[in-house]
Design the sequence.
């Protein structure tokens, strides 16, 4: 794990956001949006070189912010704890946590590599849960450990969280966990008057590398008309989280699809999704 502060001397009175999976896709767009809002950023992903380039670009465009780069593999044992410790050792307090890092594997469960699926669960479920626990406690404690200051946590789930999806079953199940966990925790922290808001972001098909990544098994063929931009997904997620909403499904068509899942038995949804995914995967 590597820590590199960039322009750390600039405005340390800004709020600070930590974004996992920051180097591309929805995470990258979240970084751009929050930098424009004046947030200092902690950029986290596996690829240090890309993070350094992003940090230089963001601080060049927004000289009033500072960026800290932390290269980390969140599938590694105790990765979330090591990341949190690194943040604390640098004296940083996170006001906005975005758990965006995630892995996807398509194909028949019994044919996909077991280690790869375990790694997906480690990132999508375990690391997200651990980071949420650690930073929610930090946010609720406040800077003097007595006064509660509050904060925001945006957990990136998926439209896939709303139904069982054959041939993408572990991914969909992991995102169902994120949705259920985030909604329940939203209520829990609100009841405790912690000042911490948790929001589940549920995008549908989004124009990111997840739509065409040979490392994740089969490629799902999706019409371009069904793809949302990563920028629009990030914008809606951040706005919903700052507004204190427990859940945001991005896009009218996706909200309609999520609503439909309440009208049919889950096995009916599974059969429909299975036929669709198997006929559109190459």
Sequence:
């Amino acid at each position: 794990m590597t820590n590199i502060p960039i322009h750390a001397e600039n405005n340390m009175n800004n709020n600070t956001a930590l974004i996992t999976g920051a180097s591309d896709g929805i995470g990258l767009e979240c970084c751009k949006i929050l930098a424009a809002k004046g947030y200092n950023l902690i950029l986290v992903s596996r690829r240090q070189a890309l993070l350094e380039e992003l940090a230089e670009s963001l601080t060049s465009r927004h000289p009033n912010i500072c960026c800290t780069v932390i290269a980390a593999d969140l599938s590694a044992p105790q990765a979330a704890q090591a990341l949190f410790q690194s943040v604390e050792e640098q004296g940083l307090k996170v006001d906005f946590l975005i758990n965006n890092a995630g892995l996807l594997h398509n194909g028949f469960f019994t044919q996909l590599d077991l280690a790869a699926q375990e790694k997906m669960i480690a990132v999508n479920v375990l690391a997200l849960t651990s980071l949420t626990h650690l930073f929610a406690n930090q946010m609720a404690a406040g800077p003097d450990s007595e006064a509660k200051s509050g904060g925001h946590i945006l957990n990136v789930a998926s439209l896939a969280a709303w139904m069982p999806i054959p041939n993408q079953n572990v991914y969909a199940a992991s995102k169902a966990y994120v949705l259920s966990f985030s909604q329940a925790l939203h209520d829990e922290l609100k009841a405790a008057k912690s000042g911490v808001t948790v929001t589940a972001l549920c995008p549908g098909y989004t124009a990111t590398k997840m739509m065409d990544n040979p490392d994740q098994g089969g490629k799902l063929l999706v019409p371009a008309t069904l793809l949302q931009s990563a920028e629009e997904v990030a914008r809606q997620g951040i706005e919903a989280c700052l507004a204190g909403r427990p859940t945001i499904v991005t896009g009218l068509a996706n909200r309609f699809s999520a609503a439909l899942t309440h009208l049919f038995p889950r096995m009916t949804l599974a059969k429909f999704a299975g036929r669709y995914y198997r006929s559109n995967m190459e």
The mean pLDDT is 89. The radius of gyration is 18 Å.
